[in-house]
């Protein structure tokens, strides 16, 4: 067997799996496969010991799920799979007032005009390759944004719109020495300048997309790198030197057929120290009104290398031992293992063929999309078309690529149905612990009660602590949690009440100080022309102001400070018939601005249940006719 001819035929029993028995009994298939060399899917009846988290007990892991086209991040406990919280980011959320309050609008900036988002990839900041629990970052493909969530308060605190590009998709973080950069890919190729001046002659226009780096602390764009082809998913290594991104449209096509034309596309590898040196030397340009340094990383550049891989690759995952970038083939049954230790030689032009950095290309099945790891040398890859997760051994895959007769596939597990991302506990850090695997399935079909033409999706929990994968939980989920990340609970220490000096509402505090208002005790109305600022405290079950008067047409800003010191006693402020609603948790200050355009009496009330007399926590705004 040559190193390029390492396809391994499964046994006859294994050939009878997914496509013939879609939706059939996994346990029956596992029995049929006994003795065939592969262990197929386990039944949910084979639940792992300890998966049940009893009432009053706490989960071992936090799970952060992207909310897909809901534009939010969801917090789950794992292994219970109980939803704990939703963090609005790119969406409007009437419960918390996200997108309505002044504090959230400051974070959203000019992009608060967008009512939608499409977030895919949540990732947690690191120090020396270990999760530090400080931030979570998330992309918005729909409106080309990147956002940051402070994990101590579980609130989005900064957001940036990436200039010069469209559709931020793949997003990962620099791991070493710390998360200095958030690396993110713009997926779609666009003309430059993209101002409509060349619409009749696009073929002659200069067109490309770019790899982007955002400063994790300032949330400003640090640099952009032009590339050939497009960009899909990305990841970074454990040396701090390299990031790599898949390209499924090396053809630069605009149609489906064109994007599938070539048998190989590529992985683009970025040399971060060379990029930083080029910026320092002034070897960059800028585009339009943006001041962001733009560097040319197209073929022939010293900043990038292009490694051909089969075909229309999708996911790009770094093994926790730091040895490999794993590119998932999507339209090829293979994944490509790029040996990171060889990248120095690749950039120093010591190889005639860039594929010299390929350590192995195991064949796994139909539609490999994403790979995760257990920290014991095994990888787990989703097979979208086969509706399976395949467990395989990386060291054995390398041996097979070099001609040894070894079976690198350990097990194939049926999942329901069409899995996209998968994620194992602590797998993006050095600390992959091989306990749990979450599989995010795009379809649920017959797994849950029917709810009309729009179906739930299906998140499945798999125990990977032993030699055999065991499916232990199905969980319906709504539109469309694209990816997730798992973090041990001891890494996080979220606040239970707010600090009064928290920067999240610092601008509102400064406004009050300018008005001579002490937020912790004052309840008063400040008039400045047709702008009225109403300050009130709240202590369950009453507001500090139960009535105030304004004039029709006034711009009214209501600021509420929750003086309660007991955790979980959140208050709300909802002004009836004005589209105004917000949450104010213990020791928080929140504000909202609206126009009092309707004369008459308008009630406001607390919309977060806080007390036995919660219903009586009300007040009135009296609006005098103009």
Automatic annotation (TrEMBL):
Cofactor: Cu cation; Ca(2+)
PROSITE patterns in UniProt: COX2 (PS00078), COX2_CUA (PS50857), TAT (PS51318)
Binding site for Cu cation Z1: 314, 370
Residues annotated for Ca(2+) 1 binding in this entry: 442, 457
Binding site for Cu cation A1: 571, 606, 610, 617
Co-factor remark: Binds 6 Cu cations per subunit. Each subunit contains 2 copper centers; Cu(A) (binuclear) and Cu(Z) (tetranuclear). Cu(Z) is thought to be the site of nitrous oxide reduction.
Record PTM: Predicted to be exported by the Tat system. The position of the signal peptide cleavage has not been experimentally proven.
Residues that, per the record, bind Cu cation A2: 606, 608, 610, 614
Domain Cytochrome oxidase subunit II copper A binding stretches: 527-626
Keywords: Calcium, Copper, Metal-binding, Oxidoreductase, Periplasm, Signal
Catalytic activity, as annotated: N2 + 2 Fe(III)-[cytochrome c] + H2O = nitrous oxide + 2 Fe(II)-[cytochrome c] + 2 H(+)
Name assigned to this protein: Nitrous-oxide reductase
Species in which this protein is naturally found: Oceanisphaera sediminis
